[in-house]
Design goal:
- By secondary structure, the chain is α+β, with helices and mostly antiparallel strands.
- The protein has two domains: 15-211, Cation efflux protein transmembrane domain (Alpha-lytic protease prodomain-like, Up-down Bundle); 215-300, Cation efflux protein, cytoplasmic domain (Alpha-Beta Plaits, 2-Layer Sandwich).
- It is 60% helix and 11% strand.
- It has a four-stranded mixed β-sheet.
- The longest helix is centred in the middle third of the chain and has 30 residues, at 150-179.
- It starts with a strand and ends in a 12-residue tail after the last strand.
Length: 306
């Protein structure tokens, strides 16, 4: 006997914040254009690196918006969860792009270490300050939504890295203006590349956890097992599976062995209601599936899972 508490597939976490992402996309693309022009005029590799990072951010936000639109498509017999996992694949693409960008920046910076060209610091400083202000505004726009979606979180972390990158460019410009030390621009480029990698790694790790259907962070499986066993009539529980379809859509399923006497006409409904209430209070999900099994049937079950 099975029970699925809910089959609703509403708008995804990323989809709820599309307006925020659109605003950030517009801001980011505007600053990228200004920084590219500024980098070409000033000769600053650090500024060009920051522009490249922001361009990757813009691409990531665009992919997230596209994925949110795809994920909102209804489920079908062929795809029973719809296209919600598309958001996770978009986050994977974002992480890989960040890694590629950081490697390219680092390689070019190392190539220029021995022969740093002259940099026009006035243009470099103006473009870097403008980028910092734009990134700060984007951070404020995304701050309230970044805990709900991997894609929004990825965009938030990328913008945060851009802000730090802009600060690095500003410091490099000031150092060159005051001391004439042209290598400061190249050093700032290396720092930007090194700042990108850890964020890309964390995002990639979270995406891999979802794709491998790992237990969501913060979920105590043993605690859930104990609460299920505390429900009247429950003898044991096995085949517990907890995973994530996409950001904000956790899923739970389990086989619950129940006393035969508790599986009467109304008894099964009462047990299911208690199980759903238990999971609702300890594991926030609309996708709870329970298979109720009479205790006398337990000997036919192959206990292959947790």
């Amino acid at each position: 006997m099975g029970h699925d508490h809910s089959h609703s597939h509403g708008i995804t976490a990323t989809g709820r914040h599309r307006k925020r992402l659109i605003a950030v996309l517009g801001i980011t693309l505007s600053v990228v254009l200004i920084q590219v022009v500024g980098a070409l005029v000033s000769g600053s590799l650090a500024l060009l690196a920051d522009a490249g990072h922001m361009l990757s951010d813009a691409a990531g936000v665009f992919i997230a918006l596209l994925a949110a639109w795809i994920a909102a498509r209804p489920a079908s017999d062929a795809r029973t969860y719809g296209y919600q996992r598309a958001e996770v694949l978009a986050a994977l693409a974002n992480a890989l792009v960040l890694i590629v960008i950081s490697v390219v920046i680092f390689t070019e910076a190392i190539r220029r270490l021995g022969s740093a060209p002259e940099v026009h610091t006035d243009v470099m400083l103006f473009a870097a300050v403008l980028g910092a202000v734009a990134n700060l505004v984007s951070l404020l726009i995304l701050r309230g939504a970044q805990k709900e979606s991997l894609n929004v979180r990825g965009a938030y972390l990328e913008v945060l890295g851009d802000l730090l990158g802009s600060f690095a460019v500003i410091v490099a410009a000031i150092v060159i203006m005051v001391t004439g030390y042209q290598a400061a621009d190249t050093i700032a480029s290396i720092l930007i590349a090194l700042m990108i990698l850890p964020r890309a790694w964390h995002l990639l790790r979270d995406v891999v956890d979802v794709l491998l259907e790992a237990t969501p962070k913060g979920v105590d499986v043993q605690m859930i097992r104990e609460h299920i066993l505390a429900v009247d009539g429950v003898v044991s529980v096995h085949d517990i599976h907890i995973w994530t379809i996409t950001s904000g859509v956790p899923v739970f399923s389990a086989h619950v062995v129940v006393e035969d006497a508790a599986l009467g006409a109304r008894g099964a409904d009462r047990v299911l209601d208690k199980l759903v209430a238990c999971l609702g209070s300890h594991f926030d999900t609309e996708h709870c599936t329970f298979q109720l099994e009479p205790a006398t049937h337990a000997e036919h079950e192959a206990h292959q899972h947790a």
